């Protein structure tokens, strides 16, 4: 397998292109936005430099080319990875276009963060080759990939995707039921809901919450996963604490005003110069560098 197509070059696409090219694939990438197409080569280069620092195995012969249409990208591809915004109708439109051009043997993957693959593949030609391939951001640094089978995905497609994720130096996990949010985001959003609630209720301020989670459970979870942590602490302890604490935890079904009010005021985070914290353009550049450097250092240690 040598040729891949990446559709969508926003936050996720460029890092994915760099990872595939590093593994020796010829990548044809397309984005509807001319602006994103113009920015993408520099973003691919930056991700390639990080892969070099990570010491990820280099398979010679890989390349990334930006092409002017979806059809050009998909024609002849063995694997297509869709990375357009998280809207079911848009994804179905893109998959319909991909299915028209893709060869019968091509694997068609969606990087959706949590839209059931069953909903994306319904009514598509040859749905057995459509599969979830959920990368984590930044996709060239975080090695875990969720592989999700929709109702009609063939077991062979899942096996192929697992082997492919390993081939590019990533770590596949198989999501056995196509539940909304899959697993990574279900866990993350349950943590986020509790964190936002604690800050909103004044139990802790945002900065101390970040310190508490990053240097407490976050740091530990990178080495000992939650199921192993249960064994490490003892199931009797979980049983005792969970019996009074579970009923205290936030269980709201909507999004807290702490977030919705900021969104309404245009405070979306780094992209608008402020969200929970405030940012300057120089501060954002420095933070991005610092975070990439630390993630690279931690991954190198964890891989030893
Ligand atoms: P993004 O908005 O940054 O980028 C999406 C890109 O798709 C844009 O550049 C846009 O121009 C392009 N696009 C829109 N319509 C198109 C079309 N018809 N044809 C071609 N290109 C089109 O989004 P993102 O953050 O890169 O997310 C992409 C997908 O990956 C989403 O499904 C998202 O949920 C998922 N994802 C995101 C993250 C994350 O942290 N950002 C992590 C994992 C998965």
Automatic annotation (TrEMBL):
Entry-linked Pfam families: 3HCDH (PF00725), 3HCDH_N (PF02737)
Biological process (GO), any one: fatty acid metabolic process
Marked site: Important for catalytic activity: 134
GO molecular function: NAD+ binding; oxidoreductase activity, acting on the CH-OH group of donors, NAD or NADP as acceptor
Binding site for NAD(+): 8-13, 31, 86, 91, 113, 137, 271
Domain named 3-hydroxyacyl-CoA dehydrogenase C-terminal: residues: 181-279
Domain 3-hydroxyacyl-CoA dehydrogenase NAD binding as annotated: residue spans: 3-178
Keywords: NAD, Oxidoreductase
UniProt-listed NCBIfam families: FHMPC_DH
Official protein name in the record: 3-hydroxybutyryl-CoA dehydrogenase/5-formyl-3-hydroxy-2-methylpyridine 4-carboxylate dehydrogenase
Protein source organism: Dongia mobilis
High-level lineage: Bacteria, Pseudomonadati, Pseudomonadota, Alphaproteobacteria, Rhodospirillales
């Amino acid at each position: 397998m040598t040729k891949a197509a990446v559709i969508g070059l926003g936050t996720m696409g460029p890092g994915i292109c760099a990872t595939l090219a590093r593994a020796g694939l010829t990548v044809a990438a397309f984005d509807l936005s001319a602006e994103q197409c113009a920015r993408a080569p520099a973003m691919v280069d930056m991700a390639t430099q990080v892969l070099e620092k990570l010491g990820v195995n280099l398979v010679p012969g890989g390349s990334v080319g930006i092409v002017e249409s979806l059809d050009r990208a998909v024609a002849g591809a063995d694997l297509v990875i869709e990375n357009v915004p998280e809207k079911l109708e848009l994804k179905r439109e893109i998959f319909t276009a991909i299915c028209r051009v893709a060869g019968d043997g091509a694997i068609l993957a969606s990087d959706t963060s949590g839209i059931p693959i069953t909903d994306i593949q319904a009514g598509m030609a040859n749905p057995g080759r459509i599969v979830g391939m959920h990368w984590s951001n930044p996709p060239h640094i975080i090695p875990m990939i969720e592989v999700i089978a929709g109702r009609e995905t063939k077991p062979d497609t899942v096996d192929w995707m697992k082997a492919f994720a390993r081939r590019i130096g990533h770590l596949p996990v198989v999501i056995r039921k196509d539940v909304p949010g899959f697993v990574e985001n279900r866990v993350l959003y349950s943590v986020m809901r509790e964190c936002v609630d604690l800050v909103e209720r004044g139990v802790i301020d945002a900065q101390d919450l970040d310190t508490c989670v990053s240097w407490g459970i976050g740091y530990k979870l990178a080495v000992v996963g939650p199921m192993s942590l249960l064994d490490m602490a003892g199931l009797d302890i979980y049983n005792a604490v969970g019996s009074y604490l579970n009923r205290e935890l936030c269980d709201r079904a909507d999004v807290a005003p702490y977030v919705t009010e900021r969104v309404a005021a245009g405070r979306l985070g780094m992209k608008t110069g402020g969200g929970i914290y405030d940012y300057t353009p120089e501060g954002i550049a420095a933070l991005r560098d610092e975070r990439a450097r630390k993630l690279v250092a931690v991954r190198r240690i964890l891989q030893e």
